[in-house]
Specification:
Largest sheet of chain A: 8 strands, mixed
Strand order of the largest sheet of chain C: 1-2
Largest sheet of chain C: 2 strands, antiparallel
Bound molecules: adenosine-5'-triphosphate, adenosine-5'-diphosphate, iron/sulfur cluster, magnesium ion
Structural class of chain A: alpha/beta
Subcellular location (chain B): Cell membrane
Shape of chain A: globular
Chains: A alpha/beta, B alpha/beta, C mainly alpha
Membrane topology (chain B): Peripheral membrane protein
Structural class of chain C: mainly alpha
Order of helices and strands of chain A: EEEEEHEEHEHHHEHEHEEHHHEHEE
Radius of gyration of chain C: 24 Å
Order of helices and strands of chain C: HHHHEEHHHHHHHHHH
Oligomer: heterotrimer
Distance between the termini of chain C: 11 Å
Shape of chain C: elongated
Strand order of the largest sheet of chain A: 8-9-10-5-11-12-15-14
InterPro entries (chain B): AAA+_ATPase (IPR003593), ABC_Ni/Peptide_Import (IPR050388), ABC_transporter-like_ATP-bd (IPR003439), ABC_transporter-like_CS (IPR017871), Oligopep_ABC_C (IPR013563), P-loop_NTPase (IPR027417)
GO molecular function, one term (chain B): ATP binding
Distance between the termini of chain A: 57 Å
Family (chain B): Belongs to the ABC transporter superfamily.
């Protein structure tokens, strides 16, 4: 047992440990065999061995296609789910299997923002109640100071503080997302996990919300796990980006090297598939990689490398040996037996 | 399906877009109005929309949600319930007027000369009928052929849209298909009668990027083969850049800018289009701060007077008097280039773009 | 599929057994005096004891239930006053008051009730689904409002009032009464017509509303828009694409309704003087005729469970997503 110190809030920590560390985290959901022929239970390997480290104030992006396990990872980090394997260490202390009482102080420090600004707010509560409840849950301010703090928070996220007694349906999508952000900020978290916070918004509104998140990050020094499927949005917001495929991180690295010299075939294909406005404004890439087929089912993922059924580089070894996530360039880790940077640029070069 | 070996990286290259020749328009929409009387008042979903698309060309209609993209294209397909929607103006397809067409004539037109692909392939296919059944129904509605012949045609179409093993797949139900394959099946269904006009309403919005790329390639390829006019609706300017020849930007039910894609995305003339470009993070270069458009799109129950964009426009002070708030600008050529139009009172928009907007694009 | 049905049948049987045991406990162990009822007013203690013995009333409850169950499976014998009565396999005992085997009584009453309920179902399904579908298509118009309004009126009249009104005023209908179908289908139908109309029209109101709501939802679905975009006729869009999807929830409600109607046709049978299950059990209830009541309970639970099973299986045929998993 390592020596831990305990803060006033009840959060324990190991001195010198990173803010958040996921080690080989797994989440296998049990599903009843559906259909009449199906017998027994199956396991959906939604997240299957994810490693990730987040330092204070850092923003880590999580990208990947639908169903690759991004939201599940988000729910694991916020401990809305208990992982079926691995460790989730917050300041060095494993919170993976803590019970609700033990988790309480940690819940405050790790907050979640949801994708859907429509369903994630209780329609029967006023904005003041929604944000105030978050304050009360974590005993943030004395009862008398609650309204003042709610109004402060509304102001911080760019809403009119006078509107604290309005209901969510009286706000637009972008404004509702701001309410969700105010609720998350109420607890003064150290980490915010944002699960596709701008995906449901129109571009002009999306940019407003991104600017808000950006200024919060700079001013409050909050670390972010930022999930999105839009590679431009992730690049804009994150220092470091992890690419997920079928429940695994296949490549992870600093923003620039990942976008300019992606080494995993999947990352290359993903970047090559992004529809880019740069193609009419600059020099379009000569050739674009196109994947064949769809992502296999997480119930029965391929053996060895999970990408091999769609990978044009696959060899025999890919079917038998699961490639480990190893460092191939400074701070850039890739899980591929034949990792190498692309021969020519994948993205359009702006003129 | 996955047992096929994939040797070389499967790559595609972009076919360069050709500038518009003086072709005859196949679809011609003029001064289209669509209104919905509701309990809250009159929703003016489309107001004075005009555009045209010749054969073998793709027009992309872009705009934020609620800007009237779907409503206008449903009108082109004759899909509005006339008891609910009030439609005025003119829609000519191959010389025939669609507005006020009789129900009987519309049946022959829909799915025959014009076909449509919808956003969500999951909900747009009937869950209780097989894929083959649904394609055959389309074919037999316009061709007097036997079931056998129709089924052969369905299998043939499934093969053409890249569905492996079409002979087996034709008898499967939509839920047995993946999202990308469902959209392929929708495309097969839309193209089964060789339509001259294809309307695709956000056909890739519900799909993943790698699958979206496949579908965009497919639509481009098929258009080359079939030679149809395509109206491609999307809110993603990246997709527009990939697929369109021309682009029409909609705001609050009207077109605010129209022209060839490289012009509109490269040097747009309307402040709203500038705002859109400034909102999209780039994929290369040092990330620049975004300059979003303030506020949010207007309610169509109470569209602002004058220029509908004026409450959000940072350039309205540059226009003399209160022109922006009182007079709706016309959609006209604003520079020497007659091939493009925009709807704004601002003087010398090309100069403003170059000196003020371009330097701060992300 | 077969495995699924087998599993469902097994669970259905266990539900029936549990119901039986529970009602057995409630009825037979209740502080009633069945032997006294059978014995009648001029009863001697010897005769009472004899009857009690013949009914196993002296045995512990477990044995009583055991004997009853055994009777259902292999049959049993009753001895009273020295004579032994043979009661063959599905034996549900003898009616205390009518002295006949319960199976025979049920066998006579069941066809009556089934005739009423199924005939009525045909009426309300046809009327309800058709008007519901039409109302859904013209939603918001005065015709739609008229339809919705009349369903509200019909539904607000208590059923027995409606049935009495039909019985009193619809004198132009043929006389009500039960004539077996096998004797003459025509007299069978004419004798049941009043009951059918009564069951059919009252329930049609509910089915109009179910179908209307279900069709409005179905017609708003994306796949209906897709169907319209193909250029097929409006009728085909509504009846092939819309109705197919809209019917599924209606079928579910129908399956459950039907089971309740089979067990609850008491008013209809009394008012139209039809010797069905409802009348039989109602009479048995008034006379503490426990074996008959138990038989009614048994039939009721079997019907409920079977209808549930039928609905589930019907679902797999309606919706390929369920069928193929
Ligand atoms: N409670 C659950 N039970 C069973 N399977 C689940 C459960 N939650 C998620 N899954 C499955 O786990 C996989 C990963 O899901 P997850 O929601 O994390 O994906 P995602 O990457 O967030 O996708 P998206 O981009 O669509 O939001 C999917 O296959 C999903 O169906
Ligand atoms: N049946 C209807 N009744 C009232 N308003 C409608 C109806 N259909 C669409 N609208 C309104 O018309 C506007 C344009 O919608 P739409 O064309 O679907 O937008 P989009 O550009 O996102 O496709 C929206 O404000 C929408 O709410
Ligand atoms: S390990 Fe093999 S299959 Fe996997 S990505 Fe690398 S080359 Fe492709
Ligand atoms: S007309 Fe005026 S308000 Fe409208 S876009 Fe142009 S400058 Fe802005
Ligand atoms: Mg998700
Ligand atoms: Mg739309």
């Amino acid at each position: 047992m390592t020596a831990t110190t305990t803060a006033k809030s009840g959060v324990r920590s190991v001195p010198g440990a990173p803010l958040l560390e996921l080690e080989n985290v797994k989440m296998h959901f049990k599903t009843k065999g559906d259909g009449f022929f199906a017998r027994g239970t199956k396991w959906v390997q939604a997240v299957d061995g994810v490693d990730l480290t987040i330092s204070p104030g850092e923003t880590v992006g999580l990208v990947g296609e639908s169903g690759c396990g991004k939201s599940t990872t988000a729910r694991l980090v916020t401990r809305l789910l208990e992982p079926t394997g691995g460790q989730i260490r917050y300041q060095g202390v494993d919170i993976a299997h803590m019970n609700e009482r033990q988790l309480r102080p940690y819940r405050r420090e790790i907050q979640l923002i949801f994708q859907d600004p429509y369903s994630s707010l209780n329609p029967r509560h006023t904005v003041g109640t929604i944000v105030g409840t978050a304050l009360r849950t974590h005993d943030m301010v004395p009862k008398s100071g609650e309204l003042k703090r709610v109004q402060e928070l509304l102001e911080v996220v760019g809403l009119n503080p006078e509107h604290y007694n309005r209901y969510p349906h009286e706000f637009s999508g972008g404004q509702r997302q701001r309410i969700g952000i105010a609720r998350a900020l109420a607890a003064r978290p150290k980490i915010i996990v944002a699960d596709e916070p701008v995906s449901a918004l129109d571009v002009s509104i999306q940019a407003q919300v991104m600017n808000l998140l950006e200024s919060l990050r700079k001013e409050l020094g909050i670390a972010f796990v930022f999930i999105a499927h839009d590679l431009g949005v992730v690049r804009h917001f994150c220092d470091r980006i992890a690419v997920m495929y079928l429940g695994r991180v296949v490549e992870e690295g600093p923003r620039d090297s990942l976008y300019e010299k992606p080494q995993h075939p999947y990352t290359q294909a993903l970047l090559s598939a992004v529809p880019d406005i740069g193609v009419v404004r600059g020099v379009p890439p000569k050739n674009r990689i196109r994947l064949v087929g769809d992502v296999p089912s997480p119930v029965d993922p391929p053996s060895g490398c999970r990408f091999r059924t769609r990978c044009w580089k696959a060899q025999d070894i890919c079917a038998t040996e699961d490639p480990a996530l190893i460092e191939r360039a400074p701070a850039q880790r890739v899980a591929c037996h034949f990792a190498e940077p692309p021969a020519e640029s994948i993205l359009a070069e702006t003129a | 399906m996955s047992d096929q070996s994939i040797q070389a990286p499967h790559t595609v290259s972009r076919v360069p877009r050709t500038p518009a020749a003086n072709e005859e328009a196949y679809l011609e929409v003029s001064d289209l109005q669509v209104q919905f009387p509701t309990a809250d008042g009159l929703v003016r979903a489309v107001q004075g929309l005009s555009y045209s698309v010749p054969l073998r060309r793709t027009l992309a209609i872009v705009g934020e949600s609620g800007s009237g993209k779907s409503v206008s294209s449903m009108a082109v397909m004759g899909l509005h319930d006339r008891r609910v929607a009030r439609i005025a103006g003119s829609i000519k397809v191959g010389g025939r007027e669609i507005v006020n067409m009789s129900d009987k004539e519309l049946e022959g037109y829909r799915g025959g000369d014009a076909a449509m692909i919808f956003q969500d392939p999951q909900s747009s296919l009937h869950p209780y009928f097989t894929i083959g059944d649904q394609i055959m129904e389309s074919y037999r509605a316009h061709n007097n052929v036997s079931k056998r012949k129709a089924k052969d045609r369905a299998i043939d179409m499934l093969g053409r849209v890249g569905i492996p093993n079409p002979r087996r797949r034709v008898d499967q139900y939509p839920h047995e298909f993946s999202g990308g394959m469902r959209q392929r099946a929708m495309i097969a269904m839309a193209l089964v009668n060789d339509p001259k006009l294809l309307i695709a309403d956000e056909p890739t919005t519900a799909l993943d990027v790698t699958v979206q790329a496949q579908i965009l390639d497919l639509i481009s390829d098929l258009q080359r083969d079939f030679g149809s006019a395509v109206v491609f609706i999307t809110h993603d300017l990246g997709v527009v850049a990939e697929i369109a020849d021309d682009i029409l930007v909609m705001y609050a039910g009207t077109a605010i800018e129209h022209g060839p894609v490289n012009k509109i995305l490269g040097e747009p003339l309307h402040p709203y289009a500038w705002g859109l470009l400034e909102s999209i993070p780039a994929l290369t270069g040092e990330p620049q701060p975004l300059h979003p458009i303030p506020g949010s799109p207007p309610s169509l129950l109470a569209v602002p007077t004058g220029c509908p964009f004026h409450p959000r426009c940072e350039f309205k002070d540059r226009v003399g008097g209160d022109l922006c708030t009182t007079l709706k600008p016309d959609l006209i050529p604003r520079t020497g280039d007659l091939g493009r139009t925009s709807r704004c009172h601002l003087k010398e928009p090309d100069k403003v773009f170059e000196t003020e907007v371009l330097p701060r694009l992300p | 599929m077969l495995l699924y049905i087998l599993k469902r049948v097994l669970s259905a049987i266990s539900v029936v057994i549990v119901t039986l045991v529970a009602s057995f406990a409630l009825f037979f162990l209740a502080p009633t005096d069945p032997a006294g009822v059978i014995c009648g007013p001029r009863c001697t203690p010897e005769r009472l004891a004899d009857i009690e013995a013949s009914l196993d009333l002296n045995e512990p409850p477990i044995n009583q239930i055991g004997a009853y169950m055994k009777g259902i499976v292999v049959g049993r014998e009753y001895s009273s006053g020295g004579t032994v009565r043979e009661c063959a396999a599905p034996c549900l005992g003898y009616s205390y008051t009518l002295g006949q085997p319960v199976t025979k009584l049920l066998g006579a009453a069941l066809p009556v009730t089934i005739s009423i309920v199924l005939g009525g179902a045909v009426v309300y399904l046809v009327v309800g689904i058709l008007t519901g579908t039409i109302a859904a298509q013209v939603r918001g118009t005065s015709l739609d409002k008229l339809v919705v309004g009349s369903t509200l009126v019909v539904q607000s009249i208590p059923y027995f009032v409606f049935a009495l009104l039909v019985a009193l005023y619809a004198t132009f209908l043929p006389d009500s009464g039960y004539h077996p179908f096998t004797d003459n289908p025509l007299t069978w139908a004419s004798g049941l017509l009043a009951a059918w109309l009564c069951v059919g029209l009252t329930n049609a109101a509910a089915y109009t509303r179910y179908s209307r709501a279900s069709m409005i939802e179905a017609l708003g679905q994306d796949f209906v828009r897709t169907a319209s975009s193909k250029g097929i006729s409006r009728r085909r869009v509504v009846y092939r694409h819309g109705l197919r999807a809209g019917l599924t929830p209606v079928v579910t409600i129908f399956g459950i309704d039907l089971a309740f109607q089979l067990t609850g046709a008491i008013f209809t049978e009394s008012i139209f003087n039809l010797p069905g299950l409802g009348q039989l059990t109602l009479r048995a209830f008034g006379q503490y005729d426990l074996p008959v009541l138990m038989g009614g309970v048994l039939i009721g639970s079997v019907v409920l469970v079977v209808m549930n099973l039928v609905v589930d299986i019907a679902y797999t045929f309606l919706d390929p997503r369920v069928r193929l998993g």
